[in-house]
Amino acid sequence: MLKPQTLERFGVFAECLLVGIWITLASLPLVTLPAALAAGAAHLRRWTGDEEGGLRAFVADLRSAACRGWLVGVAVWAALALVWLDLAIVRAGLPGGRTVGVLGVLAAIGLVVTVLRACAAWRPGSSWRSLLAASARRTVRDPAGSLLVVCGFAVIAASAWFAVPLAAPALGVAMAATLAVERRAAAR
Prior knowledge:
mainly alpha, DUF624 domain-containing protein, membrane, transmembrane, transmembrane helix
């Protein structure tokens, strides 16, 4: 028979997987990805704090985050498109292309980490502009935490490479890892 502590840990993992599926479904329009991540983070924050939550609370958070969060989604996809263009230039063999390519990839990683950390810090009524500015500072000032977020994102990439359906629940695990990084940074 499993100990209650073990069952509780499985419960957290199961909730992360469920939230990953909710995030995936909510972010199908693509521009709602930051809002879906923020709503998922809010749900996990409530769930681990023994507060009332569920799908209705997730949807309410999603609506609240999407009010201005869709603009963040558009900006993120535009920035990632610029990185893709940058990598196309690198493949064309232009002089200095490799250096520009490396800088572009590092900028994309920094952007993803900043957005994930902003989503983890989101609360209803928060300003996305101030969240992104603060998370950009934390991304630079907390390199160990940022590396942990990158590793969480690598889990999603590995899951998607292994089996595409595993990427959806892994989003919840990556959001939980980002929440843990934010709590770690706040504790210091």
